[in-house]
Amino acid sequence: MERNLPIKFFQKRINDERNTEGGGNQDPPKWFDEALVPYKAQQFIYTLSEVSQKILAKQREDNYIPNVIKLKVNEDALAKTYRKEIRQIFNTQKMNVIGLSQNDEVLIKIESAEEVSKITKKLAQGLKQSAKQGVKLGIAAIDDIEEHYPEISIDNETFEESEELKVKLFNYGDPELNIIAIRAFEKFCRDREIDYSRTVYSADLNIFKVSHASLDTIAELKDFDGVQLISEMPRYYVTLDELDGDGEIEIKMPDAGIDYPTIGILDSGIAKIPHLSPWLLEDNFTKYHEDDVDKGHGTAVSGVLLYGDEFEEENYTGFQGAKLFEAIVFPNNTTQGVSEEELIENIREAISENDHIKIWNLSLGTNKEADEIEFSDFGKALDEIQEQHNVLICKSAGNCGNFKKNSPRSRISQSADTIRGLVVGSIAKSKNSTDLSEKNHSSPFSRIGPGPSFLIKPEISHIGGNAGLDEHNRLVLNPVYTFSKTGDRKGVAGTSFSTPRISSIVAGLDHLLNEGFNPLLLKALTIHSAKYPTELKVAIDEKLKHLGFGVPSNIQDILFNQPNEITLILQDNLEKGNFIEILDFPYPQSMVDEDGYFHGEICVTLVTSPILDAANGSEYCQSNIEVLLGTYDEKTDRDTSKRGIINPIGKDGAKNLLSHSLYSKSVIKNTESPYTRERVLVAYGDKFQPVKKWSVNLDEFTPSNKEKYLKNPKNWYLKVEGLFRDFIETKAEMQRITPSQEFCLIITIKDTRNESHIYNEVTQLLDSFNFVHQNVRLKEDVRIQLRN
């Protein structure tokens, strides 16, 4: 079937925007023990009185750096509701709650003895029987209060003298206090002749590099009040596993008169070999002398980007070519590598000086595994760079050599936990006798998810080679092909070489679209098109862990539909207090079978731009969006004179069809079904995931659920609702702004029985329901190509 019908944007109508209604249960939670409240209040008051004495002593010596205490909160009380009660005790006129630590402990800054006094008065209410329920709940939710001491993340046995340290100061959420702490830290180092320099990770991270450090230096630094964390400064190395290859690849030349996209290659440099020279821009970025540069890795990455389809003789990307901007952010790979802060500084500078380039490929990583809870400073820095300069970084998930010693593979590398970027894993194109991975399974070296806080990373995968060991335990590659720095054909393997395939798809999409640069849309389109290879017969959680949402389609297939399907895009900004509810969602009536049940496949992809807060540990993502798509019986009038009811129209018998519980367990477990490469059915629950995807087949409902929710007549609805964490709600309140988050939602409805022209039918329904809609705008030369 021909694929030439453009996907569509549609807009919510005025009445589709609703106000969030109040509600909630007023009963105290099960963990609440009222009898313990006075004892806890007394204990907390005593701890704070000691803090107050320390603050007074410090201020007599002109030390105005706040003290930080940490609250160990009852695990069941970490919910947003009870954070609010805690916050009301510890916030005075200011926001004293400054974030979460690694162990989900709430961090509180205290600036003065007066503040301790105000907090103590609130706690003292807990000693009275007549105390308000909110105060009692806040006190009961806290298990313990203690002073915060710097976290030391250094192995004394492996630590060598003259190492570089990374020292992170608290972010107090107040620019003036941060400046006071930074100045004091610099004086502290000067007085002790500690060799320090300030780094620029992101505006929210106050990080210093300390050079020529010893164990004594660490002991001294621990005494500074504002230090949150001391660790070794991570170093980054690039490895290029390669084999000589043979065979000629014809040189591609840019066509005169064609305006090609530009992709920035954040790497070790690009050699001016005949195949790449015509595509290399004259401008470049480097901080290194040419003697300190080895362009092998960057050349191999660029070769895959421009010639990936030709090398593998497949239409993987359908990419026509791009101009390459060489950004040398990595020196010659000596044993020294490059320190984290230097690499981040180079990336920031390369992008900020060239932010007209919107797509960047970063096939560099670290062998340090991402944390299970805390997002890495490198990832946070990449997020800030992308947000500030409105760019998209395609980032490799990282390689892991654990397969060589037959141990489980590592999780994604630090820096691959970027929220704003698109992170790429690797799959094997084929399997040889020594290879460890099956065809189209995750490559044995490809790092896996999840990221911190169960984040789905990588989001996407592509081919990057296979590997194994021979009978003498030597590494044997089954590579993908590219160029060496001398221009020869080379076999290579790694997530470094799956990533440029995704960069080329994203750049190709951006170039064909006439929509202005839109990173959310590009991410959403790429992920929405992704499918799992038919060979991958494992449970969905294993698929997500190894491949993310799968392998994307080529550029042409992403932008165009067949007659038996339609793809609709809703892109909007959701403010706190509002949600979108469309009660006339245009599901085609022709997709009702002879027994009167709705059928078809529905694929839904949501990509959000969450509010991020670097001080909040596992709660780095401060906002979330939920999507419900389903059926209901009829619209109802609601009594808005009743308490808590704001919206005059409701729905009866509504059911969200993206719910796990509706589908037959035996069908979901059947990995042989032809539908398994499409199926993504995940219970996201309250996890703050910036990317979510559901792909469901209505034929897989249990018989009773079919009867209840798919038997015609039924109406269809779509609901999109935002959720904001307490910390960001409070911060926004103090700044007098309304928090909001941008999202891009893509829905494809497909008639797998090929009985109807779904594209035309849904387009007519959009008209009859008065939706503003339009085909995705394409550049003129694309329309001409299609007509031909």
From TrEMBL:
Residues 262-534 form the Peptidase S8/S53 domain. Signal peptide: none annotated. The active site is at D267, H297, S496. The keyword Coiled coil does not apply. PROSITE patterns: SUBTILASE. It comes from Epilithonimonas pallida. It comes from the Bacteria. Belongs to the peptidase S8 family. InterPro entries: Peptidase_S8/S53_dom, Peptidase_S8/S53_dom_sf, Peptidase_S8_subtilisin-like, Y4bN_pept_dom. Transmembrane segments: none annotated. This is Subtilase family protein. Pfam families: Peptidase_S8. Keywords: Hydrolase, Protease, Serine protease. The lineage of its organism: Bacteria, Pseudomonadati, Bacteroidota, Flavobacteriia, Flavobacteriales.
